[in-house]
Amino acid sequence: MDDHGAGAAVAPSAMGPAAADGERTRRLEAMLRPRSVVIVGVPRSGDGPSARLGRVLTQRSFGGRVYGVNPNGGPPDIGFEVHRTIAELPEVPDLALVVVSSAHVERAARECAEAGIGGLLVHAAAETSPTPAELDAALAAIADEYGIPIIGPNSVGFWNGAIGLAATWSPVVDLANRGVTPRRGPAAIVSQSGGLGFGFLAEAHTRGLGVRYAVSVGNEAALDCVELAQLFLDDADVTSVLLFIEGLHHPRDLVAVARKADALGKTLVVAKVGRSEAAGAAGVLHTAHLAGDDAGYQALFEQYGIERVHDAEEMVDIALAATCHPRSAGRRVGIVSMSGGAGAWLADACEAAGLEVPRLSAEVADRLRTTTGTWGTTANPIDISGGALAPLPVPGAIGVLLDADVDAIAVALPLAGAAMMTPIIEAIDRHGQQRRKPLAIVSYAGLEDPAVVDQLAAAGIPWYPTPTRAARALAATLRRGAARPARVGAEAAPDLAPGPAAETFGDVRRAGRRFVHEHEVKQVLARRGVTCTREVATTTRDGAVAAAAQLGGAVALKVQSTHVVHKSEAGLLALDVRPGAVAATFDELWERCRAVTGARPDAIVVAEMVRPLFEAIVGVRVDADFGPLVMVGEGGRDAELLADRVFRLTPLAHDGAVAAIRSLRCAPRLLARAGDEGVGALAHVVTVVARWADEAQHEITGIDLNPVALVAAGPIAVVVDASAELA
Fold first, then answer.
1. Are 231 and 180 contacting, i.e. CB atoms less than 8 angstroms apart?
2. Mind listing the pLDDT tens digit for each residue in 600-650?
3. How many other C-beta atoms are found inside a 10 Å radius of the C-beta of residue 584?
4. 301 within domain boundaries
5. Are residue 689 and residue 614 in the same domain, yes or no?
6. pLDDT tens digits, one per residue of 552-580
7. Domain containing 175: what range?
8. Reported pTM
9. How many Å is the maximal CA-CA distance in the chain?
């Protein structure tokens, strides 16, 4: 895209929906790369945010024209023309920075829209009159009526590194307040927090990450961070988009953004804070307790390859790695260090991050001896501390590792002196290794020389101040490369025959019950091709005895009661009941139910006993924001205590279910006991439940299958216990 955009506005009523969307995008691009800017409400004096905005805007030449609007005129030394009304402007600007008080924002915004100004950025934040909701609604109505993009209100502004435009009052880019001119580069930052967004920009500059855009979206009355992320991904000069979000009105919109980023080979890095109100109410089912308030977002991030981070440093670390590293896969890291201790620390950090530091082959060791001479060792990590004053062993060792059986390279160096580091950086750059294998430099001496950081940035070589951060960034790079084929497979349409029409559980509703009994849930699952325990529901002692005889051997007796969901906790479950004890056990459970609940059981289920190789839990929570969230994890009575589970959004295909199961902490034990066949059998249950949840999400709020037993015959997955909660 061009670095500047302009053109006459067209009324949205004069075009169809697709054309209107295209016009909105064109105007949004133009306002972010304007040829002319007007500050509406520029103050006559003072040093508040609105006054600083004019000063910061004119500290650099972005190649465009700046105007101000104030009915009383502007200060004499402001440096640009100030007109009394918008109508008096000599041209129609691409961008209006609205800095009037919140009480006057709506009128100013409407005047700008009527004048045909390309887009608005509203700095003011409403408090009481108008309220935030009233101001947001007014701006949204203006945006819809005129087809004009509006950022804000409560926006700190934006930075466009491509043209050097600082449409903000942030001190980060205020040259009169020890601010900086950020490095130009391929990252884009979109933040719901203005302060943090520009904080990310400052951290990026310090670390050598160039930024093309940094935008504070404010309250998102008419334009949200998801739309901006889509726009920036379409920019050929952007390779990574960094998002800071507190919450989204429509969080599933991130799926389209993630798919676009993946298809374009770009990276989406997200810091998500805050908790969803929709998830705040405590549930009764195990799945609800295990979900927590953040389950939907975490499922989305994991499922669609979004890198989630937890602080500004990690955000920049991951973005720097994505910018500099090729898309790669694997886990093996070769380490070169000018300090034995730093190399050992880096090796520990890599292994803690899930990477491997493999033994190097004899052939590689021979090449290292030839390359590094007496300066270095031939083990991994490669310690060349004996050559600390001789720079050549470092690039030589890296050159050997480029052809070795490793997937990435980490180098521990002191970045404190340009005189010593310059030859090393130049030699590394000549190898062009950043385009062949991911490489990270760890600075272990502190006091990084800005000149060295500049050289690394120019060469596209990422550096990190600690071994832990370097290992974390390399792990993210390799994980992203390895996960892409699995993600593509996971998004394929589920390979399942269409299920029966979504069950309405009319009998359950007519009985005034909120929870669906175990045997009723299993009937649904059986119709959909899921294996469940053989069982009979009965209300008589003789029926229980007959059912046990039919099933043969020891059986389980389980009370079905409107008033009880978790039978074992209430003592309404008996296991391994021998045939001769069935009648007495039936009577005991019947009376115990009366004592515990004050009512007779709805039924008692007599079920076959199964001997599991492994117990899993499969469940669903229907989330107000995300829809059905499907859970799989380690099950049994201690499922909540173990808390080893993952959630996924629907739709979910078999490959996606397999990947989710393999990501569990318990996966090695599951594989050891039940093998790949057991994983596949459990994945079948997960995909069936996901399909059912999609079809019945307006009928149910949750499903619990716990345990799902993996048994030796097959192995197959057998649902042992189940419940569901109606909406």
1. no
2. 999 999 999 999 999 999 999 999 889 999 999 999 988 888 999 999 999
3. 11
4. no
5. yes
6. 999 999 999 988 888 888 899 999 999 99
7. 12-246
8. 0.87
9. 102
